Amino acid sequence: MKGVVMAGGAATRFDRRVEKGILEVGGIPLLERAVTALSTRGIDSVTVAVTGRTPETERLAARLGVDVLTTSGMGYHEDTLELVGLMDRYVSLNVDVPFVSSAHVTALMDRSKSRSAAAVVPRTLCIMEPGPRSVAVDSDGRTMVWVGLNIVSGDRDTDLVVLDDDVLSVNVNDDEGLRVADRLARERNL
To answer: Which CATH entry fits the domain spanning 2-188: 3.90.550.10, 3.60.15.30, 3.90.1300.10, 3.40.50.720?
Structure first.
């Protein structure tokens, strides 16, 4: 299976123009963290999906030695569907979730029963307050938060795979999220 880092967003919630992929958490660029997480058992190759808004991220991907694919940049879901058309099925990791590890990626792949799956964290474990679009309710009525780690396919049936790790709730969507992530990286040696 292929691994894809989704790294083409405009990062509009920051107080300045920035590309998330090149931001550093604990001294390591977010893109490098994501590429490392996807470089695991079961992943044949890693590609970084960029858009015309992320030229620095594209340059960093080249320095890291990973393939780059440019999507239309019409939006996250549209870009995801473009990639399904090219790859049929792949593991997707959003560049802005800094603490996903190879162990999390393999846990998602090992525990998924469908062709599509989404990693979630119980709301009770969240370090940061999730945005309203980041919350889901599982079949048992528990509130979960999307991680940004998925197995993507054209199938509508999607497993929710619960990963009980609080750091997976950290998302670098703005300057506050970056500060929290950087503090956690240093405190927990992540």
So the answer is: 3.90.550.10
